[in-house]
Amino acid sequence: MSPHTLKIQDAFDEPACERNRNKDPKARKKGCSKPLIPGATAGGCSFDGAKIVLQPITDVAHLIHAPLACEGNSWDNRGAASSGPTLWRTSFTTDLTELDIVMGHSERKLFKAIREIKEAYAPAAIFVYATCVTAMIGDDIEAVCKRAAEKFAIPVVPVNAPGFAGSKNLGNKLAGEVLLDHVIGTVEPDDPGHHDINILGEFNLSGEFWLVKPLLDRLDIRVRACIPGDARYLQVASAHRARAAMMVCSTALINLARKMEERWDIPFFEGSFYGISATSEALRRIAELLVMKGADTELLNRTEALVVEEEERAWKRLEVYRPRLEGKRVLLNTGGVKSWSVVQSLMEIGMEIVGTSVKKSTADDKERIKQILKDENHLYESVAPRELYSMLSEQKADIMLSGGRTQFIALKAKMPWLDINQERHHAYAGYDGMVQLARQIDLAIHNPIWAQVREPAPWEQAMTTEEKLEDRTASASNFAGETAGDDC
Which intervals hold domain Nitrogenase/oxidoreductase component (predicted)? Predict the structure, then answer.
């Protein structure tokens, strides 16, 4: 059995996952998901998942060893933001052709590309991604990367997660393994402290982490590494010297958090920065872990004072929105940490959750939702497009929050929709983010355009009631789309 196959099996057999722990050993080795069929990775293959996790490391050159389309179709697939380097926004690919593959020039071309990137851009490191084509023809990217690292005196990291290996979530976990094997622990920081933490599974979408970091700065808590959002290579390489960690999206990097705890004794917890109470709880848990690892107990008092101050300010700003949103019904089609944390944050301002997708949520995520909603009937493992459309068109909800793939269902039903996934343009994390979320929901629900679009079109006014019913039924039957729950 190849080392790569063993790595994939190890990623599936995750002891920190509650669902895996409840399986017998034989079932656990079969993996977390059903085998993929051709075309099933259209929503994201393992190469795409690995790139999602690693590309936000902003001072690294990300080189795709593949024909041009692999990079062209995966570039800029998330709305992560950087406060500094922009190198990660540059596409690098070996652009393999049929001639390169047939004549066996691909590994030579890869080595040459690494040299050119090093000379032209002087990156902190180069990550080299294997893809379906280069994996099938047997290119040894690990050997090429090792030779290039020795020759050019720069970290060259092989990312062996070809698309056919599995789903996007498997690619997330394989990227975590890459960081453990080749990056984390390779650099010793010269200024370790008792208040150093790691934030794992935070992608800084639309700059969300920038709404949280000032809170940590006020507590003198230093983020040694935020992986991967707005990260730098040296920060990730020295992440093993943090005293504690917070896991934001366990579906993506639970294996990274667990193994860092095993290797370097970095305790972690899973939390969220969505919502007022969740943000406060996360800050308290961070402070508790740091005190447990040797920080001054005064940190607990300062954290509580900050929480009280920020909560009071946030609730005061939310007063204008609460009367307008209280009692409004929300349909959520999300996944990961958002499946429970957004539920909690919306209920805080008096909104009613009529349903939430849990297809890509962990067992722990689902248990949290059950405790919050106290009604399992509001949990949907998978919702067909026709069912989503029916719920909205029959006005069982006042707004749908989801990713971009399902927005057209809401628009076809002439119902408000708000992007809560990675393509969004607003940051919703922390206390300020909660106010922004309430504001955007209020703007969407009370937009006067909905009253106008719901008016019958001129050519419909003469239709009989029976004809209108037949027309709506035909539209719903012909409508199809992908409704899988979105990621963290």
Answer: 45-443
Residue 208 in domain:
yes
Are both 176 and 50 inside the same structural domain?
Answer: yes
Rounded distance, CA 228 to CA 463, Å? Answer: 55
| pTM value surpassing 0.85 | no
**Token digits for 191?**
């200024």
Indicate the average pLDDT of the chain: 84
Name the domain boundary from 253, 283, 317. 317
Give the pLDDT confidence score for residue 35 in this predicted structure: 44
pLDDT in tens, 248-259: 976 789 899 999
Residues of the chain with pLDDT under 70: 1-43, 73-74, 76-77, 250, 335-339, 358-365, 374-378, 380-382, 461-488
- Sequence-distant (≥ 6) Cβ neighbours of residue 412 within 8 angstroms: 389, 475, 479
The residue with tokens 């929480």 is 307
Which of the listed residues 291, 317, 343 is the one where a domain comes to its end?
317
Q: Is 297 exposed, middle or buried (0-12, 13-18, 19+ CB in 10 A)?
A: exposed
Same domain, 362 and 425: yes
Spatial neighbors of 19 by CB under 8 A, at least 6 apart, are 32, 362, 363
- Which of 182, 293, 280 is CA-nearest to residue 245? 293
pLDDT digits (tens, 9 = 90+) for 455-471: 887 777 666 566 666 66
- Distance (Å, whole) CA 205 – CA 228: 11
pLDDT for the residue numbered 475: 61
Q: What is the CA radius of gyration of the chain?
A: 24
* Chain-centroid distance, C-alpha 480: 25
**Contact criterion met (CB below 8 Å) for 486 and 403:** yes
CATH of the domain at 452: 3.40.50.12380
Sort 327 into a burial class: Cβ within 10 Å, 0-12 / 13-18 / 19+: exposed
